[in-house]
Amino acid sequence: GEDVEQSLFLSVREGDSSVINCTYTDSSSTYLYWYKQEPGAGLQLLTYIFSNMDMKQDQRLTVLLNKKDKHLSLRIADTQTGDSAIYFCAESKGNNAGNMLTFGGGTRLMVKP
Amino acid sequence: GAVVSQHPSRVICKSGTSVKIECRSLDFQATTMFWYRQFPKKSLMLMATSNEGSKATYEQGVEKDKFLINHASLTLSTLTVTSAHPEDSSFYICSAYGGQRYGYTFGSGTRLTVV
């Protein structure tokens, strides 16, 4: 099965908060990332968190990490229509940040005006 | 910030021909580059990992003779799809790792259509 799992779809109204969830299986993951992909484009790094952190906030984005449950979430406050995209979580295994990334299947966020 | 330039962004080619995709790190040196393939509405699938000056490491199921990867310098990696067929049509994305300072930076992707 997948090493990293995400729900496929999330729909919210403009101005509401969005929470995108991700679970992973490898306890040795040390870096966890959130990427945004707009149609036909490459991936844009939104934020990342080290495994020894519980939370990281960057403007409208808040990342929560529950290492015990291997659960990662991305909260987008005051969601805008421009936030509509596919969001991928990814993990880097082991202690070497140069290791390959393993991606979740992506969550399509749709923001309704 | 770190920028990775990937070209071409879109290419249409005939069956049997070869296509080369370039991935270039513009303002940092990439010790490792990764090539991914993305099928419609699917996640990224790692194809291969390449380190400068050495042979690429291919993931299981990826034909190394079909997908030739060259990482001749710390700023340039190329993926050549040889004897392309319609089933090779996909979105290909490269990623360059620039150490702890730059992390992973992705190219903008190449949409390949083989007709």
Written description of the protein model:
Chain A has strands at residues 4-6, 9-13, 18-24, 31-37, 43-50, 55-58, 61-66, 71-76, 85-92, 101-103, 107-112. Chain A has 113 residues and is mainly β. In chain A, strand 9 and strand 10 (101-103) form a beta hairpin. The mean pLDDT of chain A is 88. Chain B has 115 residues and is mainly beta. Chain B is 3% helix and 53% strand. Chain B is built from 1 helix and 11 strands, in the order E-E-E-E-E-E-E-E-E-H-E-E. Chain B has one helix at residues 99-102; strands spanning 4-7, 10-13, 19-25, 32-38, 44-51, 57-58, 67-73, 76-81, 90-97, 104-106, 110-114. In chain B, the strands form 2 sheets. In chain B, strands 2, 4, 5, 6, 9, 10 and 11 form a 7-stranded mixed β-sheet that branches. In chain B, strands 1-3-8-7 form a 4-stranded antiparallel β-sheet, with no helix packed on it. In chain B, a hairpin with a 5-residue loop joins strand 5 (44-51) and strand 6. The longest helix of chain B is centred in the last third of the chain and has 4 residues, at 99-102. Chain B is globular.
Question: Could you provide a short overview of the structure?
Answer:
The complex is a heterodimer of chains A (113) and B (115). By secondary structure, chain A is an all-beta fold. In chain A, 0% of the residues lie in helices and 56% in strands.
Name the descriptors.
heterodimer, A: 113 residues, mainly beta, B: 115 residues, seven-stranded mixed beta sheet, four-stranded antiparallel beta sheet, 1 helix, 11 strands
Q: What is the fold's blueprint, element by element?
A:
The complex is a heterodimer of chains A (113) and B (115).
Chain A lengths: L3 E3 L2 E5 L4 E7 L6 E7 L5 E8 L4 E4 L2 E6 L4 E6 L8 E8 L8 E3 L3 E6 L1
Parallel strand pairs in A: 2-11
Antiparallel strand pairs in A: 1-3, 3-8, 4-5, 4-9, 6-7, 7-8, 9-10, 9-11
Chain B lengths: L3 E4 L2 E4 L5 E7 L6 E7 L5 E8 L5 E2 L8 E7 L2 E6 L8 E8 L1 H4 L1 E3 L3 E5 L1
Parallel strand pairs in B: 2-11
Antiparallel strand pairs in B: 1-3, 3-8, 4-5, 4-9, 5-6, 7-8, 9-10, 9-11
